[in-house]
Amino acid sequence: xxxxxxxLEAFRFRHACKQFDPHKKIAREDFDVILEAxxxxxxxxxxxxxxxxxxxxxxxxxxxxxxxxxxxxxxxxASHYVAILxxxxxxxxxxxxxxxxxxxxxxxxxDTANKKRERFALFQRENHLLDASRTLFDWAGKQAYIALGxxxxxxxxxxxxxxxxxxxxxxxxxxxxxxxxxxxDGKLGLSVMxxxxxxxxEPGQKTRQSMKEVVVWVT
Amino acid sequence: xxxxxxxLEAFRFRHACKQFDPHKKIAREDFDVILEAxxxxxxxxxxxxxxxxxxxxxxxxxxxxxxxxxxxxxxxxASHYVAILxxxxxxxxxxxxxxxxxxxxxxxxxDTANKKRERFALFQRENHLLDASRTLFDWAGKQAYIALGxxxxxxxxxxxxxxxxxxxxxxxxxxxxxxxxxxxDGKLGLSVMxxxxxxxxEPGQKTRQSMKEVVVWVT
Lengths: 219, 219
Description:
2 copies of one chain form a homodimer. By secondary structure, chain A is of the alpha+beta class. Chain A has one domain (about 5-90, about 130-215): NADH Oxidase. Chain A has 9 helices and 5 strands. The radius of gyration of chain A is 19 Å and the shape is globular.
């Protein structure tokens, strides 16, 4: 099989798996690859707004299940369940997460960091990201969805199933995570969740718009 | 090389490529894989909010370049340049794109579609997605970022470079696309863009938060 077919096979394999085999655990070495796919994902200005909280505790899973209509079977059967949190105000151009990223992770000298912060401020203003806290958090969340997609793709490449979870009362779910001390006192908010494991049955036929419907060429 | 290393290699290979070799074109068979990675991406309720507009026309690229400070070299050197558009009000529970997806793509009988629409309406209300047009569009855009991530990963797997582009006046860019008749009379908005091609030089060291910083286990 050539490289083109190899990667397409992963995209074809992936489906929204609702129920996992509760007896089949993902090997640690495989799950590390899934986490690494998230960690190495690109993000706007390289500011990595995310934190990946792997929820293996059954009490916490039960609490989340009470407010997650779309994850009833996933929460009780998934080998691994991940909540992707993102920084809220820390993602402002003058926010503490952004300052920490430039200083401690990107290792920028102070004058370079200041110039980057100015460009970033212009960018955030130009695209109205500072107009509302919700808008800023949604923008951070978009980066998290890149990581989410990459984690599901890495999983599928390894023959592991997954399901992205938006079907929950996210405010209530976030409050549950906050009560367990997982949000840095509200600095982090809940963006999206994902379940990983092994399917119990084959999925139905994948439905998609055709290439002709979703692609337009301007030549 | 095992499967774990194979997929990790793609994530390590990818970087935000600013300048591409203008003489090196992506083979049609490879670019089809990149588009297919986008097309097969998951989306909330399977409603595929996206359209992929491949901009190869140099006049249109020049117009976009005038309002895209973050894509100056990408627009002039990329082998392929993609704008990802998403439906705006069509993504409401009672929107026309959602109706078309359930009827023509997912092939749901009318009573099943009605039940799904009700659940979808509850979901959109529960997470306040209908409070503002901007919020609804940002939510659609999150799905587009899954496709964006998958397209860049598929590219990297094939040894092709990419760069996600947020660094632009998106309103002005959207107006340019609208003037060329690419937004279905404003039904589609511009979510994000991406350039694809081949690097001219090796990137610097990738900077990332450590595993310990981004992952929390709740066991």
